[in-house]
Amino acid sequence: MNLTMTADQKLLRDEIRAWLAEHAPQGPAPDLATQEGVGRARAWERELFDGGFAAVQWPKRFGGRGADPVATLIFYEEYLRSGAPPRLNRLGLGLAGPTLIDLGTPEQQDRWLSKILSCEHLWCQGFSEPGAGSDLAAIRTRGEVREDGILINGQKIWTSWSEHADWMFALVRTDPESRRHAGLTFLMIDMSDPGVDVRPIRQINHAREFGEVFLTDVLVPHENVIGRIDNGWHVAMSTLVHERGASLYTAAHFSSFLQDLIDAVPADSLEDAHVLAELGWLHEHIEAYRYMTLQTLSQVAIGKKPTAQASMGKLWWSELQVRLYELGLQLMGPAAELRDGEQGDPAPVRWRQRYWLSRAAMIYAGANEVQRNIISERVLGLPKDKRHAL
Ligand SMILES: Cc1cc2nc3c(=O)[nH]c(=O)nc-3n(C[C@H](O)[C@H](O)[C@H](O)COP(=O)(O)OP(=O)(O)OC[C@H]3O[C@@H](n4cnc5c(N)ncnc54)[C@H](O)[C@@H]3O)c2cc1C
Questions:
Q1: In this structure, are strands 184-190 and 142-146 parallel, antiparallel, or unpaired?
Q2: 262 CA to middle of ligand 1, Å?
Q3: What CATH number does the domain containing 338 carry?
Q4: Residue 2's pLDDT band (boundaries 50, 70, 90)?
Q5: How many domains does the chain divide into?
Q6: For 201-221, what is each residue's pLDDT tens digit?
């Protein structure tokens, strides 16, 4: 992979910058706890789609621009620089879409991909269940295979965006005799089915970003199965590579947030040797993460499934987040403890919210302890921990 900026990539940066300067909404990001906020965020996604910028990294035949990893990183760097709101349909664009591109049939790709791009369909991920989180292979949601479809009964939990999602990609157990990885099926569930009951979970910060999803006699047509029945684990592994280790959006965030911190802290803090050393450490590790992500994506681009490398990426981005956001919280001082609206400067609130989110990053996309197990087994060749599945 050549990481030197080409003339085409420079042109692309100019094109993206100019387009975003004209179109990107400014001001506070939409409040995604409200329907109105979600509606505004969807409208912005639609505008990105109309401009041809919904997913620059997707192949051209699927509505993307066929951008390579470096060009994709350029897009996200410009995106964050522009002050545009956070992307809404991250589970559609980042997980459902790439999985369909990798393993969907042409009919399935035609049916779903363009609606992911335009955000007509907002997606959520139905993997975790009570009793099946780190141990994902313990999934118990039942999928009874019948002639007219697969009848689903069970429960998912921690399902981000389930309250607003139109579709959910899910893993269910279709072979009741099977144990562990065999006998699981990956399929798409229409969230408007009357048998789907979403109960949002209110978090400590009052947001309700995820929920429980109860599935009662939901009949899913055979054409909604991705890959083969009972072979869903293979499909899920492809999804997890995208989730854990291959997000250039995350990579671009780090540099943008580090700059945000440097701009937000009082000038005298920047004379403190400890703070300077910490900022230097962060910059060094952000750069390393960026190259690690480009490397993972270059493996994906040639058809490999670098699961262990993705686990390393997951550890890197989640722990980097904690260190960056902890520093941010410290440097904001007592102002970060005030409630939203009690102060004029929005920066302390922003850093407090980031800090809270960073605690969750050690858990979602697979808990960090489990990623370490994967690395010790698959990279270092140490004995397998028989208690976990991933
Ligand atoms: C903000 C957020 C959003 C999420 N969004 C989604 C979503 O959209 N869709 C979805 O399907 N899931 C989602 N999840 C769920 C997430 O994938 C699970 O929380 C995660 O896999 C851990 O599972 P668990 O919560 O059941 O914890 P457990 O598996 O019960 O783990 C509890 C603790 O035990 C440790 N542990 C477990 N097994 C081992 C082992 N073998 N070795 C060492 N330590 C171990 C874990 O590291 C953890 O610290 C989300 C979670 C969060 C926090």
A1: unpaired
A2: 33
A3: 1.20.140.10
A4: low
A5: 3
A6: 988 777 788 999 999 999 999
